[in-house]
Amino acid sequence: MSDAPTPVVQFGTSRFLQAHADLFLSEGDPPRRITVVQSSGDPDRARRLAAMADPAGYPVRVRGIRDGAVVDEERRVTSVTRTLSTATDWAALERVVSDEAEVILSNTGDSGFTPRPADTGTEPSQDMSYPAKLFHLLRARHAAGRPPLTVFPMELVSDNGAVLKARVLEIARQQQGDPALIAWLGACLWANSLVDRIVSEPIEPVGAVAEPYALWAIEAQPGLAAPTRHPSIEIVERLERTERLKLHILNLGHTAMVSFWHEAGGSETAIVRDVLDGEIGARLKNVMRDEVIPGFAARDMEGAARDYLATTLERFANPFLDHRLSDIAQNHAQKIDRRIGAFLTWVRDERPEFQAPVLDAILAKGSAR
């Protein structure tokens, strides 16, 4: 394990991060060194944590279709130079955040931001949520007289930077933080971002198999810069446009396919790529052409939607990804409302007379369940 300074401190060890941010920071201009932090304290992941910092790096296998061509290649991640655990290495972590960090990034899972009873403690504890642990680390950095830094949450939470900032400030006030600390926390840059890449399986002890498509979209704000330059990292004026494309093309497409599959009495073993060339795939392409793309056109996003749809259909056709419709069908009614119902509301707020008979029918069936 190297003692070289690491300007990036990452909370989370998931295979998604391995094949996403860690790879980008390894390939980027400039490459950035990372300290990876295990915040869960899970002893079963100790082997993974140790392997991540191997000087030889670890593999990411990229497999799928890009621009009509099959991709099957291996890349190597060498950005991780140190690994720590909040359960056993708090003093070292506090030093790294205070003395080395310029950027903090995280992907701590669906419940990562959820408050816990231990969050009210005045000293750091392993039982605290990620925002509470982050507060204590940032408080130590402030006490050391270090400048504010940039925080990039990657959790799948809308406005994740604003949400994390609000939670950390709430903890600071509960801790009766002094006004100078609260002002310093407010001076940190808390970035809203959206991430996307299908990471289909792990490579043991560390590494992952991922599709060619990858995105880390970061919403612009004064003074904010991406941690490195990389083709998959984009600074966008408004993150909502990117969120709409993902939610109402990629995610809506999955949900529409499941609805058509239900109607056809499809097999429990049906796979997304295999249905694209049949009746379900034809119905999907028709509803995209006749209803989804015109809906985006009503919102002045037709060009972006057509480009995103072409990429999405390539992702659906990935010959290396066994993506079962039965898996996508989990929580189907809620997905109909969020992906299709929200799309129709968004479009009709701009064009009340917008016609979408197929999507309306799916929504009506979902509401009746």
From TrEMBL:
Disordered: annotated span: 107-126
Residues covered by the Mannitol dehydrogenase C-terminal domain: 243-340
Keywords assigned by UniProt, alphabetized: NAD, Oxidoreductase
Pfam families from the UniProt entry: Mannitol_dh, Mannitol_dh_C
Domain spans labelled Mannitol dehydrogenase N-terminal: 8-221
InterPro entries named among the record's database cross-references: 6-PGluconate_DH-like_C_sf, 6PGD_dom2, Mannitol_DH_C, Mannitol_DH_N, NAD(P)-bd_dom_sf
Keyword Glycosyltransferase applies: no
PANTHER family documented for this protein: ALTRONATE OXIDOREDUCTASE-RELATED, MANNITOL-1-PHOSPHATE 5-DEHYDROGENASE
Name of this protein: Tagaturonate reductase
Organism per entry: Tranquillimonas rosea
